[in-house]
User: Fold these one by one.
Assistant:
Number 1:
Amino acid sequence: DGGITQSPKYLFRKEGQNVTLSCEQNLNHDAMYWYRQDPGQGLRLIYYSQIVNDFQKGDIAEGYSVSREKKESFPLTVTSAQKNPTAFYLCASSTRPNTEAFFGQGTRLTVV
Amino acid sequence: GQQVMQIPQYQHVQEGEDFTTYCNSSTTLSNIQWYKQRPGGHPVFLIQLVKSGEVKKQKRLTFQFGEAKKNSSLHITATQTTDVGTYFCAPQAAGNKLTFGGGTRVLVKP
């Protein structure tokens, strides 16, 4: 099955700990994106990558980091510097920028 | 930078009625995409509009791109309970960021 996979679906962490969210796609897409969604709110862009070994900050990159060492993988690390990390995190990919994006099922992160 | 406003933020619709949601940008767009997110789910792509004045239909959904390529609308006729969810526009200007409007949350009253 082709698609985009995020794991885990639910994640709990203690305050002050870094946590890495996984995003893998087997669609051979060049572009990948990370979004944060708070309850009842829209999607805010954290980071995006157009090609392997390259990524750019989105609108709310502070407290987050990413890597794009492989085409199919775009992990997101939520660092202890992120003041309000509890949220729903969505990863997406597209063939190239400005084309249809496919989303993963999302990871609900709760920091206590 | 680009400012995007999606209105209304909430839409309560009686089943069977029509409604429209609008997406307005402060800058000229290269294209615009629309997505639907069901409660508890993830966004799913609906359509992409590229040409000035373009109109596309998907069954009961009609999408329109403004002549100036600064706004777009989604019109749903004869609303059904399956239309419940949040509809997001994703206006694309220069550059390769995929950003989204704030969404219109649709609730359907049976």
Note: The mean pLDDT of chain A is 94.
Number 2:
Amino acid sequence: KAGVTQTPRYLIKTRGQQVTLSCSPISGHRSVSWYQQTPGQGLQFLFEYFSETQRNKGNFPGRFSGRQFSNSRSEMNVSTLELGDSALYLCASSFRDSTDTQYFGPGTRLTVL
Amino acid sequence: TQLLEQSPQFLSIQEGENLTVYCNSSSVFSSLQWYRQEPGEGPVLLVTVVTGGEVKKLKRLTFQFGDARKDSSLHITAAQPGDTGLYLCAGAANQKVTFGTGTKLQVIP
């Protein structure tokens, strides 16, 4: 069974731009969660989607948004990028919800210049 | 807000030594998971503990869930260079997961 895939793996953007990251979950998994990982803050929860609906949301500004498609693939978007948005963005899929075993993708490393 | 504090933050030890990593919170969790993350990759689940006082062993790794389900520990016996990585605990409650602050382990050959 193929694992969680994330594209792109690396991204460099400048302040003010916007970015879209993509995540393909494990086949059959309907829950997709997104996390931001930085050395200073650790792994922080962004949001969780299940059956195309946002089920939970972390404490991030509205510049961070996401969506899920009918095939469970998910995208997250960050608008008006700031230097502090530089991070590793991880996507995790699970069968029912984020308290199930989560399978993480390799992440997208975003650098904002 | 549920917080999970891990200690120590960093650990550098020689191959063959034993170590323990702690994960503490003031909140009660319905289950607690431990992950290991290697550079350039996402975290990989090691174990899930669900019962207070539960002890699980995975080869040289021993995981314990506190009686009150607020804390957990990970003990590694005879550490090997392949154990090097970032260890994360994650507590689940009310359909949400909170990750710990992480422990970066380096095992020197």
Note: DSSP finds no helices and eleven strands in chain B.
